Amino acid sequence: MLLRQFRVGPYQNFTYIVADRDGGEGVIIDPSFGIEPVLRELDALSLSIHYVLNTHSHPDHVAGNREVKERTGAKVGAYKTAPLELDRKLSDGDAITVGGIPTTVVHTPGHTPDSVLYLFEGHVATGDTLFVGECGRTDLPGGSSEALYDSLFGKVLRLDDATVVLPGHDYGPTPTSTIGRERSESYVLRPRTKEEFVRFMRS
Ligand SMILES: [Fe+2]
Questions:
Q1: Could you tell me where the DSSP H helices lie in 30-174?
Q2: H-helix segments, the chain
């Protein structure tokens, strides 16, 4: 598998290219502001991009959708309720296979109602649900600490410890992590009841 991480734009966003190989087929996850370096890499690797996949609908995760779509002919996919121009409306458990790499959609509301994880080949793109050492905020419109608790403790932490975490922003000490490391080191993932977590998110 070919995986590239780009730190782009003014908010330390991460955009990802995932493909099978040089000259192969792939997807772009969360094209953000300042998409030019990503487009140059697509050309350099001669990749055919079939999908743009958004982890959620916030502007800094979708800003490059139109440009990537125009340049590559990719279809745009995101969770079905995302207020975006979508070619493919995704649901929890859907699978998208590009270049022989199956990607599974896991609905993880909390940061936004339309947040999802993309799970592929031992990696998980977490968007703003989970950062390295941190989680996404829940005080923006549509955010819910109760829902984020269920997503983090009921879905994210059910993933295998070896799964590589690909966050939506470069907010941590390292650009990527693993579920096992976050489980043991992240202060947001310490064992808490839902009530304790909601209080913690308010503090
Ligand atoms: Fe966000």
A1: 36-45, 59-62, 65-72, 145-154
A2: 36-45, 59-62, 65-72, 145-154, 179-185, 194-202
For residue 56, the CA-to-ligand 1 centroid distance in Å is 7
CA gyration radius, the chain? 16
Distance separating alpha carbons of residues 64 and 39, to the nearest angstrom? 10
Sheet architecture: strand order including 2-8: 2-8, 13-19, 25-29, 48-53, 75-79, 88-90
Average pLDDT on 93-122 reads 98
| Entry pTM | 0.97
Give the separation between CA 36 and CA 56, rounded to whole angstroms.
Answer: 21
pLDDT in tens, 123-173: 999 999 999 999 999 999 999 999 999 999 999 999 999 999 999 999 999
DSSP 169: B
3 state DSSP class of 159: coil
The encoded tokens of residue 130 equal: 């989970």
Give the CA count within 13 Å in the CB-facing half-sphere of 194: 10
Burial of 48 (0-12, 13-18, 19+ CB in 10 A): middle
Strands 13-19 and 25-29: antiparallel
- In the structure, ligand 1 is a single-atom ion and the residues with CB under 5 Å from it are 58, 128
128 CA distance to ligand 1 centroid (A)?
5
Which amino acid belongs to residue 43? D
